[in-house]
Amino acid sequence: MDRIFTLEEARLLMPDLLARADDVVVARADLVELQTALNQGTASALGGLPEAKALEARLSETLGWFTGEGLELKGIAPLLFDFPARLDGDSVLLCWLEGERELRWYHKPEYGFAGRRLIPGTAS
Predict the structure, then answer these.
(1) pLDDT in tens, 59-111
(2) pTM above 0.90, yes or no
(3) In a domain, 123, yes or no
(4) What is the DSSP letter of 5?
(5) What pLDDT score does 11 carry?
(6) Which among 102, 104, 108 is positioned nearest to 120, based on CA atoms?
(7) How many angstroms separate the CA atoms of 81 and 66, rounded?
């Protein structure tokens, strides 16, 4: 069964989400840099193919944590996650985008990211 978050549950998960998201951002950048060097046949201070495979595994494991917690991964560059939730009796997706340090946005599933609105009671 898919998890449905309360706003409080989602916000309690934010410190873990932020720590793991920061890790994804670093690993993602390292992997892109390393893969570019490998594709161009140049040396990289980040290592070689074994290190690239380790970064891929690290990314996969970390991204798996998010989905294991019930979040929906919508994008990896930038990171974008939705928390399925109910807000004022409506089914919504609490929406977090890379760079945000708190959970402040939601949208109805049928409107997608373009329909993002501030969570009621959240200062703009």
Answers:
(1) 999 999 999 999 999 999 999 999 999 999 999 999 999 999 999 999 999 99
(2) yes
(3) no
(4) B
(5) 97
(6) 104
(7) 8
State how far the Cα of 1 lies from the Cα of 104, in Å rounded to an integer. 26
CA distance 43 to 32: 14
Q: Return the closest-CA partner of residue 21 out of 94, 92, 84, 102.
A: 102
The total number of structural domains in the chain stands at 1
Evaluated on CA atoms 119, 63, 109, 3, the torsion sign reads negative
Q: Where are the alpha helices (DSSP H) in 46-115?
A: 49-68
Residues with Cβ within 8 Å of residue 15, at least 6 apart in sequence:
none
Pair of tokens at residue 9 = 């549950």
**Res. 124 pLDDT band, cuts 50 70 90:** low
- Residue 90 belongs to domain spanning: 7-118
